[in-house]
Amino acid sequence: MDGMHDLGGRQGFGKVGIVPKASPFQAAWEKRAYALRSMAAQLGLYNVDEYRHAVERMDPRHSVSASYYERVITAIATLLVEKGVTTKAELEAIAGGGFALSHPSAGGRTNAADRKSFQRGERVRVRNDFVPGHIRLPGYIRGKTGVVMYEGPLTPFPDAHAHGIEAADEPTYDVQFRSEELWPGGAEQAVIHVAVFQSYLEAVA
Amino acid sequence: MASHQAPNASMEQRLAAVERVLEVRAHDKGLSVDGTIEMVEEKFVSENGAKVVARVWTDPAFRARLLADGKAAIAEFGIGLPAIQRQVYVLENTPAVHNVIVCTLCSCTATTLIGPPPNWYEDLEYRARVVREARTVLQEMGCPVAPETEIRVWDTTADTRFMVLPMQPPETIGWPEDRLAAIVTRDSLIGVARLSAAGG
Fold first, then answer.
1. For residue B37, what are the domain limits?
2. Which of A29, A94, A100 lies at the smallest CB-CB distance from B20?
3. Catalytic residue positions of B?
4. Domains of chain A, with CATH numbers?
């Protein structure tokens, strides 16, 4: 989905607020949220792609105004309601107030029927795919051409895995792009590497 | 948020509610949030990445093993990867190439080497800007890159992970491994800081 989470290349942002050696947690509850996410993952109630998609499905206004760990807690709570572990009413009763959750999921999809293997050095094009569900394709490479640097390990296909759809695990390819080709006339010179699932790629004729 | 939504409870209260509904399931599996905090504080630390870097600087054979197969090489230290993370690629900074890591879609990190991501890594500013104006962002972050040095940005969009291998400060050549490890910072493992003998 073309959601607010897909940030690469968006303009209008200010400076990065780096504080060297700062704790990754701004408050005690944030460390607790980090640990809770790790613990919940071990309970096996949902997989990592379902989790990421639950973050992406937050209302855009809520998403951009929330801290990272508010997004974490919202996603976990959404999945626990969707999986029938609890209800929104129960969560709100325990919390003693509102508990905004993510919007419902749209459909997913299985692997591309015509996916193929690529060799190191091969030029590839990222398919011009638009899907309503989960996808691990950053919008800034859609339709763009790059060069395969290496083949990565077999990984569950996110577009299916986030939606409980059967699919084969597939390799990801490290694809190298030039920033000047991603944003012609609108980027500083750099090489951009993106890990791209096989189903997102097609050969350049 | 829809307009009929009641004002949200505080984050502490919402967190406590989620924790409560998972309590019985967690207990049945011998898990708890407090126990997980202990695990995180012990295992998800950038000191792990620092140890790996110090070994690279002192052991050329280890450097070759690490660059060839990161997952196998860090296992020599007893460092593993969380189950979903399939492989870790180590990116070597040189005078000619400066590598920097981001996750534009969320905030994926090699947690067992770098620790939980710093806030700025999760922030919208870094995720939006570093792929498109890396040189300016690095300059602003206190890590200017020479004009003749190529910048490579690595977007963590799949379940492979990255760690930057920072350049060793020349005045530290010959130091013992533990002293070297002490100067390696978390931010240098992401590629937004350079190292000095005095420590980051």
1. 11-19+26-41
2. A94
3. 103, 106-108
4. 1-105 (1.10.472.20), 123-203 (2.30.30.50)
